[in-house]
Design goal:
Layout: H1 2-39, H2 43-94, H3 99-112, E1 114-123, E2 129-137, E3 143-149, E4 155-160, E5 163-167, E6 174-177, H4 187-191, E7 200-210, E8 213-222, E9 229-235, E10 241-247, E11 253-265, H5 270-273, E12 296-298, E13 306-314, E14 321-328, E15 333-340, E16 349-353, E17 356-362, E18 366-372, H6 376-383, E19 386-388, H7 389-393
Antiparallel strand pairs: 1-2, 1-11, 2-3, 3-4, 4-5, 5-6, 7-8, 8-9, 9-10, 10-11, 12-19, 13-14, 14-15, 15-18, 16-17, 17-18
């Protein structure tokens, strides 16, 4: 019985094993069927295709990231620039430059830059006069300057270092030794504004607009109120002169310098390369002949005004001998003529010609004439301060 059971169990197990094997074989064959087409493709190619697709997706992501990063950098740069401009503007608002600093900028550009300036001079009651002004520093270090009157037959001044040559109609060209050209704009204001400090006060007014450009306005005020006042406008970006006004004591405009165009360049104008220094007139030799001793002296002058020269002259119209003195504060020149009373021409005379004052007074011993761009009361104070040299020394 037990053997029969065992045998029965054996047969049953064998049948089960064969069934299982058959199922396994069938599953194996079914599994092989769909894989067969894939086996026709190289395994390495399947890997590359997968990697290529992955790399393409990564490249697209990297490109997007780069564009976003560039956009962020541009935005950040704009923000930083805006903050910088705001800080600069705020700094200027908090710490505005003084009048002396602005004048130093004017002095620097006039002395060291290559520039070309067109300006007009307008005097009350006269025709507007246009000028062309050039300055250049040559390769050899030479400094050249030109001032050209643009109307009429013209008048031209050329400076090469410390020699100024003058060319004008119906006059033989000549040269003088000078470090600056003497034109409508006072040289002291351009080159040595510090020399005006004793006579004038410089007051920074603030920002303005001249000829479409941002400018800084400066008032020039006589310290003792004995001279006319001035208004000065400088280009905010370069320091170049844009406008200069002369005002009388009531604030009325007497004279104006208005820049109409200017250019600053890295190289000097081509005009200067055509100047042959050897062909310019030689500087005139100034006479050192001693002057005759003066019998009269001026005992009053406005603050900061000093005697520049004195000599004895013969008047062209009458042939009379007069004592002559020239005084200046840097912006204003005043001439004083003195002659004996017995040679006097006419009586007291006071004239105002555009910006100049002409005053003649006669006392018991002398006649004095004062001429200059000053108020009448200042001319009168100078004239009435005349004293014989002997009484002055005492």
């Amino acid at each position: 019985m037990r053997c029969s059971s065992i045998l029965a169990l054996f047969f049953i197990s064998g049948a089960a094993i064969q069934s299982t094997i058959a199922q396994t074989t069938s599953l194996s064959e079914e599994t092989k069927a769909p894989i067969a087409p894939v086996q026709n493709v190289n395994d390495g190619d399947v890997e590359l295709d997968a990697n290529s697709e992955s790399n393409t997706r990564a490249g697209r992501l990297d490109e997007a990231d780069q564009k976003e990063a560039v956009r962020d950098d541009v935005i950040q740069e704009q923000l930083e620039q805006s903050r910088s401009e705001q800080n600069t503007s705020a700094s200027r608002t908090r710490e505005p430059q003084s009048a002396n600093q602005w004048l130093a900028e004017l002095q620097n550009i006039i002395t060291n830059a290559n520039f070309q300036v067109s300006f007009v001079q307008t005097i009350a009651g006269k025709e507007t006069v246009p000028y062309l002004w050039r300055h250049g520093i040559m390769e050899d270090g030479s400094e050249l300057e030109q001032l050209n009157l643009q109307n009429g037959p013209g008048r031209e001044l050329i400076r090469v270092n410390d020699v100024v040559s003058v060319f004008e109609p119906d006059v033989q060209p000549y040269s003088l030794r000078s470090k600056h050209i003497n034109g409508p704009i006072p040289s002291v204001l351009l080159y040595h504004p510090e020399q005006l400090a004793e006579a004038y006060e410089f007051v920074a007014v603030g920002r303005a607009r001249v000829a479409g450009r941002s400018a800084q306005q400066i008032r020039i005020v006589s310290r003792d109120n004995t001279r006319f006042g001035y208004q000065l406008w400088l280009d905010e970006s370069s320091g170049m002169l844009l406008k200069l006004n002369m005002l009388d004591l009531q604030g009325a405009l007497l004279e104006q310098i208005q820049v109409t165009a200017f250019a600053i360049s890295p190289e000097p104008a081509d005009y200067f390369s055509r100047i042959n220094s050897a062909s310019l007139p030689a500087p005139m030799a100034l006479s050192n002949t001693p002057n005759r001793a003066h019998k009269w002296d001026v005992t009053y002058l406005p603050a900061g005004m000093r005697e520049i020269k004195q000599d004895t002259r013969r008047l062209a119209l009458t042939g009379q001998i007069v004592e002559y003195k020239l005084f200046s504060d840097g912006l204003v020149d005043v001439s004083v003529y003195v002659q004996p009373a017995e040679d006097a021409l006419g009586e007291t005379l006071a004239l105002r010609n555009e910006v100049s004052t002409f005053l003649t007074l006669t006392d018991g011993k002398a006649q004095v004439t004062v001429v200059g761009e000053i108020p009448l009361q200042t001319a009168n104070a100078i004239a009435t301060s005349l004293r014989p040299v002997s009484s002055v020394s005492e």
